[in-house]
Write a structure and sequence with these properties.
alpha/beta, TIM Barrel, two-stranded antiparallel ribbon, 39% helix, globular
Length: 285
Amino acid sequence: MPLFGAHMSIEGGLHRAFERIAFIGGESLQVFSKNQRQWHAPPLTPAEIARFAEARRKWGRGPVAVHDSYLINLANPDPAKAKRAVVAFAEEITRTESLDIPYLIMHPGSHVGEGVEKGLTHLTANLDRAFSRATDAGSVTVLLETTAGQGTGLGSRFEELAHVMSHSRYSNRLGVCFDTCHAFAAGYDISTEKGYRRTFDRFDAVIGLARLLFFHLNDSKKERGSRVDRHEHIGRGTIGVEGFRLLVNDPRFARHPMVLETPKEKTLQEDIVNLEMLRSLVAKD
């Protein structure tokens, strides 16, 4: 069975995320390592790192990933803005390493009108610059997230992610986080058996399934190919139950971390319901 979990708030301290994921019975976790609406944060203190490690040990379940700040756009053609993004992303890599977390998930960013080709060139160069700044964080794998393709966003086509991986000097430290809502909104059909098979055959041919290390499980409020990123609860959107049934029973992803990013209140009851739905779809031996 896949390792189902959710993105959790770090309100009250990073370590509090483990209380929340344990409450819903999650087996994998995604967090921000700081307030994602701010460019910078003070370095993590030894006490914060120790509290996080102890809470993680007590939880004792599965994989953890950090998601970077949505402010960061490594594809920005403006030199000053790009430099700011590079510094911020290097800090994200360092913070992820200090917490002993293997994965840092990022949105590929936006070309802001320069075009996809130039955007990918900027993204790759700036990603490499961030890696080279974070010299003390060599164990972190950066996962490029599939995107819906809103506006001038990059990463909605598998070929775009493959371009970054093939041109980066740090290709061996890059992988993919597959967001179901984003991929569907970008035009990839994962809602039917035929479409699902074609989508992952294409992914394998262009990128390689070995690069797919993490999933975001979100249904979509909008139709396939809308290029609009709007998350919905599992089975209540346009992907539907069948698409998720196909995914959670795919033996190639039997032990992959799959986290929810669906809407929720502080009670976390929505996460509990969504996890129950996902687990009910897993075929019994």
